[in-house]
Sequence to fold (448 residues):
Amino acid sequence: MVWSEQQLLHGGKYKIEKILGRGAFGITYKAVHQLLNQDVVIKTPHESLRLAPDYPNYGEEFIKQGQLLAQLSADLDSLVPVRDLFQEGDTYCLVMDFISGESLWNLVQRTGPLPETDAVEYITQIGSALNLIHGVGLVHLDISPHNIVVRNSGKPVLIDFGIPGDILRDSNVSSHIDNKPFRPYELYYQGSRHATVDVYSLAASLYHAVTGLNPTESIYRKYDGEDLVPPNQLVPSISDRLNQVILQAMALEPKDRPQSVQEWLQPLTEDDYFICLSEVDDLSSDVGVDYRPLQDLLIHRKWQEADQETLALMLKAAGREEEGWLDIPDINKFPCKDLYTLNTLWVKYSNGRFGFSVQKQIWQSLVTESVQVTPGADYDYETYCRFGDQLGWHTNEKWLDYVDLPFTLNAPQGHLPVSYVGFFSGWAYFAFFMGGVSLFSRLEICSI
Fold:
């Protein structure tokens, strides 16, 4: 049976608040521990599992595996803690902590593809927990970005175990599994309970985290001959090593994948991988400017701090730190190598969404070819407004103040960087007229 809101369980110890989700193997409820006034999650077997031939023997195994998870979760920050086990009528219940935070799926939807370093950090932490789970004979079977929650502290937690399906090995409910882009085909048709199922699903979750897109469903690859698009074809900044690691773990046939999570993640935990990531950027400067602080801010998606750091670095490169602003003569002789470095960093770490060159392309689409980037050209005010509208600097016939601008990856294309135009107190039109178009002219001269 499916419980309704306000339903009391376990002698009134728990009260159901709502259904959080239904998977192939179970139903997950949000509930309240009445005495502690504490939010919890209760997972029960899906009602269809009662038709499985070995369901009468289910209780003993459910308790055994719940006990194992409770022991493991006590020592692992990346595993949702198990707090209680009980039986309500003929329904077995597993009680876990309710994790405050945001699912990896929602995080990617909100911010766009994650930086490679962040995504790998999340997945390797989850992988370490999975490795121990597999070591005691359990398999999760339902890994997806929906089942990885990033706590408010930034730590990832694996939730929603598929215990019922792991116990009822002869059940044929896997064909109803949700989150199809993250499932290997053998889970649908062969009911596989091997660790390579979790390897595939964790790799598919990593694919989604770094591209913002779902991978091609395995059943279409198996039976319709569709191809899996390599991650770095979608996001060129993805390293060759990460691209290869994801593709290996998402091999269509289980025998072609790494046979354990530890084996799969090994290339992403080696020191040379992180050294390679940090060294891949060209941080050259003609005037001795250190661009590593900006690189670090962009890697960690601190967009507003990166925007302000960009202005500080431009002032330093132009020798205008004392004045605190850029004038047209200085923009017209801004070092090309430094301009290239600044633009490349912004374009790379925003996955092509932000950067001077992105802004220049938008500007060029709005003006006539003869005056696209001519300094001092007599552009009409309407053109500036349309440009501001597209970048999110101007809305409802008003130039926004700096404090009112959004600093997220969901901001309009070309929205950042913005501080270089002297964006303050509604003077954006004048500031952009004085400096922005001149910068686009300089980009043209520097072949950027």
In short: The chain has two domains: 8-276, 292-445.
